[in-house]
Structure formats: structure tokens, C-alpha cells
Specification:
heterodimer; A: mainly beta; seven-stranded mixed β-sheet; four-stranded antiparallel β-sheet; globular; B: mainly beta; three-stranded antiparallel β-sheet; 9 strands
């Protein structure tokens, strides 16, 4: 079964760091552009950032609220994308989903992980 | 304040038809960027419901349909069922922000 599995969430104090992982299975991860989307408690989905494939030069893009604090990287040998989150703020509290598109449905996000919860305390 | 505006809630009785609007601007929907729709059941990850404005992925019932015109898009659900009760989000790309953007989400209640 094609799936993404996130891990690494937890409770951290404001100013601290966490590293989230997104592991892919049962599909060709090498060419995948992986996005992170977060959802604060009771609120809407918010795109966080994206890392392209190695063949596309692995450029990364970030949403303004996290730019300069969050860093995406990937290890294709482990089918894993990492989201390094530094200088965390209380407003970063959310469930973080990794997601990608298989290409079957254009660039719509058709593959999602189950999410990992991040709580930043003051 | 979301870049894409959706009504916070809609409701309908079983069997009825409801629509959910998604209003953007010239830098996203109106700029020719496609709209995708997602369904999110409580405590779960979003699920792709409609892609590229009006196409259904495999496995999505034809009770769900999408449309796009100008700076807006709509999701229509006919023959409402209790299992349709969920949050629905539209998504598009915004060229002025250079990011994917989601609507604020609409909670569908089946009465």
C-alpha cells in the first residue's frame, strides 16, 4: 500500500527545536516532491513548505511564517524527508502532515500521512 | 484571514444538494490556477475529493462535482449522506505569495 508515515512530533518549549520525519513506502520516492501541511487545533490547513526531487535540483520553498526557521531535507536512500524546526513558537502548535502527488491526478495532493502532533509551550 | 474564502458551515438533510463556494482573486483562482478539493473527516488526514477543478479521483462517488468560474470555484454534493459530514477545503496556488493556499474550510452538517 502506498503510504507516508510521519514521526518526531512531541512537546517542546518555545525557542526549542524538533525534527519531523516523513517515510514513504510502496512508491517511487526518488522523484517525489514532498510537501508539509500543518493544521493548528480547530483551524484550517496551512501549507508549510516543499522539497523537490534530486533530479529537479532539490530546491525548497517555505511559507512566510516559517521561512528562516524551518529547513527541509531528504535522504532518498531511506525514502525519508525531514523537517527541521528551529526557534519554535507557540503558534507552530499543530498537527503536521506530509503529503505528495503521485502524478495520477495532476499536482493535487493524493497521498497523505496520518500526521504527527507538535505542541509548543510558552 | 484566508486567501481563499469559504463559508464556515453549510448543512442539508439527507438526499438534498449542497454547494460550497471558494472565492479567490486574480493571483490564484482568477489567474488560471487549478482548484483542488479535499474532504477531512474528524481526526484524519485530508482526502483528495476533486482535482483540477472538476475531476474526480478513482473511488470518489459521482455525487461530488466541482466547477470553476472567474475568481471562484464550487463543490457540489448531491444526494447527501450521513457519511458526508466532514470539513471540506479548497486549494489553489497563489502567484503573488508563491505558495499553495487553502481555503478556511467548510464544515458540512447532515441534518
Amino acid at each position: 500500500e502506498v503510504q507516508l508515515v510521519e514521526s518526531g512530533g512531541g512537546l517542546v518549549k518555545s525557542g526549542g527545536s524538533l525534527r519531523l520525519s516523513c517515510v514513504a513506502s510502496a512508491f517511487s520516492f526518488t522523484n517525489a516532491w514532498v510537501n508539509w501541511v500543518r493544521q493548528p487545533p480547530g483551524k484550517r490547513l496551512e501549507w508549510v513548505g516543499r522539497i523537490k526531487s534530486v533530479t529537479d535540483g532539490v530546491p525548497t520553498d517555505y511559507a512566510a511564517p516559517v521561512r528562516g526557521r524551518f529547513t527541509l531535507s531528504r535522504d532518498d536512500s531511506k525514502n525519508t524527508v525531514y523537517l527541521q524546526m528551529d526557534s519554535l513558537r507557540t503558534e507552530d502548535t499543530a498537527v503536521y502532515f506530509c503529503t505528495t502527488f503521485s502524478g495520477t491526478y495532476d499536482d493535487a495532493f493524493d497521498i497523505w500521512g496520518q500526521g504527527t502532533k507538535v505542541t509548543v509551550s510558552s | 484571514q484566508s486567501v481563499l474564502t469559504q463559508p464556515p458551515s453549510v448543512s442539508g438533510a439527507p438526499g438534498q444538494r449542497v454547494t460550497i463556494s471558494c472565492t479567490g482573486s486574480s493571483s490564484n483562482i482568477g489567474g488560471g490556477y487549478d482548484v483542488h478539493w479535499y474532504q477531512q473527516l474528524p481526526g484524519t488526514a485530508p482526502r483528495l475529493l476533486i482535482y483540477v477543478n472538476n475531476f474526480r479521483p478513482s473511488g470518489v462517488p459521482d455525487r461530488f462535482s466541482g466547477s470553476k468560474s472567474g475568481t471562484s470555484a464550487s463543490l457540489a454534493i448531491t444526494g447527501l449522506q450521513a457519511e458526508d459530514e466532514a470539513d471540506y477545503y479548497c486549494q489553489s496556488y497563489d502567484s503573488s505569495l508563491s505558495v499553495w493556499v487553502f481555503g478556511g474550510g467548510t464544515r458540512l452538517t447532515v441534518l
